[in-house]
Specification:
The protein is mainly α. Helix content is 52%, strand content 10%. A two-stranded antiparallel sheet has the order 1-2. The radius of gyration is 15 Å and the shape is elongated.
């Protein structure tokens, strides 16, 4: 079944190797931990949920900046959309 999935989704086919989950899991956890650490330093409450999080509306732009920094640390130029 996995082979069929990789064939159908050729854009992510490079991740079809069995150890790709290790890289993806590490990167997701890095982003989450970086955001938590930066929130703690600024005394901002944030609730991590898998690879996203919840924070107070007034800190939205700050949290977006934290997330952007975490992705940049990984060498990713852009990040996913953040929705209020």
């Amino acid at each position: 079944m996995l082979e069929e999935i990789w064939l159908m989704h050729h854009y992510i086919n490079n991740f079809g190797q069995k150890d790709a989950y290790k890289t993806i899991t590490y990167e997701e956890s890095h982003v989450t931990l970086t955001v938590i650490e930066l929130c703690n330093k600024q005394n901002i409450a944030g609730l991590p949920i898998h690879n996203s999080g919840i924070g107070q509306k007034q800190h939205g732009s700050t949290l977006h900046g934290f997330m952007k920094k975490a992705y940049e640390d990984l060498g990713v130029a852009s990040i996913l959309n953040i929705t209020p």
